[in-house]
Fold this sequence. Notes:
The structure holds two protein chains of two kinds.
Chain A: E1 5-7, E2 10-13, E3 19-24, E4 31-37, E5 44-50, E6 53-56, E7 65-68, E8 75-79, E9 88-95, E10 105-106, E11 110-114
Parallel strand pairs in A: 2-11
Antiparallel strand pairs in A: 1-3, 3-8, 4-5, 4-9, 5-6, 7-8, 9-10, 9-11
Chain B: E1 3-7, E2 10-14, E3 19-26, E4 31-38, E5 44-50, E6 56-58, E7 64-68, E8 73-78, E9 87-95, E10 104-105, E11 109-114
Parallel strand pairs in B: 2-11
Antiparallel strand pairs in B: 1-3, 3-8, 4-5, 4-9, 6-7, 7-8, 9-10, 9-11
Amino acid sequence: xxxxxxxxxxxxxxxxxxxxxxxxxxxxxxxxxxxxxxxxxxxxxxxxxxxxxxxxxxxxxxxxxxxxxxxxxxxxxxxxxxxxxxxxxxxxxxxxxxxxxxxxxxxxxxxxxxx
Amino acid sequence: xxxxxxxxxxxxxxxxxxxxxxxxxxxxxxxxxxxxxxxxxxxxxxxxxxxxxxxxxxxxxxxxxxxxxxxxxxxxxxxxxxxxxxxxxxxxxxxxxxxxxxxxxxxxxxxxxxx
Lengths: 115, 115
């Protein structure tokens, strides 16, 4: 079975520019997560979707970050405008359902560098 | 709220030696506990998880972890390190009952294996 696909793999932008990341979860997975992983730290959840509805976005900086999951499949995460501190790896993950012991499958991530 | 503390940002072992990566958790509800591995430029992969039942959990690649409630620990071990084990390892916790079911990750421990 195909894994979680993310693109692009790498992105370099200047501060105050905009950027968008794309994620295609494993087929049939209803739950989708976006994580931010800053160098030297563990992943931090930004937003969780169940189908096309938002379950948790409490840690999403909503003044500059936005995410959507139209039709409950693919998802995009956007940053506008970017700041230097947004430099990180953005990981997308999906799982077959919500639940504490449901395994999340991760994509390879998008490494963002803001200069 | 749940959290995990991983003791030691780097652990260095010789090939064939015992691997011990430490994780202590804090949770107001009975926890679910996870260990993930991240190879360079890759996403996270689940090594093992503790949900209920047997406190000694066996995972992939010869790793195992033991849930010790009295010590609030979930240390990861492997009897004999292999060069291919060199990677970043993350402990994560999520809560049962009224706690959040979204995994909270530790800062990670980098495992270095010397020939």
